[in-house]
Design a protein that fits this description.
Helices cover 27% and strands 21% of the residues. It is of the alpha/beta class. It has a six-stranded mixed β-sheet with strand order 6-7-5-8-9-10, covered by helices on one side. Strands 1-2 form a two-stranded antiparallel ribbon.
Length: 271
């Protein structure tokens, strides 16, 4: 026998057609029956194609409407939430000043309205013990004013440095960081003066630790004070900074400063 089963179901804009043909070896279908079935199938497909061509497509939602909340039970059920009623705009009383927009993420006025509240909620307490005093030293006896830094002197490493640090200690500042001015005749392209055990920075560190054993001394780990080119690193003849070779000398500089008595280094060389 010859059995055909056609099942169609509308989903969107297409029709799914399943055809099951079971042919028995002992009972073949007649030619006219087979032609009739195939004609029916062809007619259904043509009809569905014609309907899909003339059926208007659903409108695409614009970006402006995507922010509307929807409730979706399944893939085929999408219903917009009902819009809330517009509330009447509240008006300020007459005489209210115009508000100036302030760029504040919060308004912590409660925590600063009185000295008692401020002292109760403050988390940071600054004292002279928190400060590090920068000192600028040169290889001389007298202090030289720094014209580009009014009120600041370049200190003589032997006397001016000691007097200045002693005054700072009287206020409770017991940490310093040293910035040396290397004499021009000691500056080279390879900056070997940076790790000279008897260099200006090393001598300044040693005399501070000998005079004030409990002081904490920091240093500037960088090669530019010792470079005749003025760069933080060793420069090739084509103008390229030699990064890895510079790091080697920075390590030697840091070790030399630590051996002189420094308690910490500030890696400012940018290599």
């Amino acid at each position: 026998s010859f059995v055909s089963c056609i099942r169609s179901s509308a989903k969107g804009n297409f029709v799914c057609v399943n055809l099951i043909l079971i042919a028995s070896s002992y009972n073949q279908p007649k030619p006219d029956q087979a032609n009739s079935i195939m004609a029916n199938l062809s007619g259904m497909q043509s009809l569905q194609t014609s309907q899909s061509l003339h059926q208007p497509r659903p409108a695409v939602r614009s970006r402006a409407s995507r922010n509307q909340l929807t409730v979706r039970a399944d893939a085929g059920d999408e219903r917009p939430m009902p819009k809330t009623q517009n509330r009447p705009k509240a008006n300020a009383p007459e005489g209210t000043p115009t508000r100036v927009e302030l760029e504040l993420p919060m308004r912590p006025r409660r925590n600063r309205r009185s000295p008692t509240i401020r002292s109760a909620v403050s988390e940071t307490h600054m004292s002279p013990a928190n400060f590090i005093l920068p000192v600028f030293v040169h290889d001389g006896e007298k202090n030289d004013p720094i014209l580009t830094m009014p009120g600041v002197d370049r200190l003589g490493w032997r006397h001016g440095l000691i007097d200045h640090v002693r005054e700072a200690r009287s206020y409770g500042v017991n940490q310093v960081v040293i910035f040396p001015k290397t004499p021009d005749h000691l500056k080279t392209q390879t900056c070997e003066e940076a790790f000279n055990p008897n260099g200006l920075a090393q001598r300044s560190i040693a005399i501070l630790k000998d005079t004030f054993p409990d002081i904490e001394v920091y240093t500037d780990v960088a090669l530019d004070p010792y470079s005749s080119d003025g760069h933080d690193g060793i420069v090739r003849d084509d103008g390229v900074i030699m990064n890895d070779e510079t790091v080697e000398y920075l390590c030697r500089q840091a070790v030399s400063q630590a051996e002189a008595g420094a308690g910490g280094g500030s890696p400012s060389d940018m290599m």
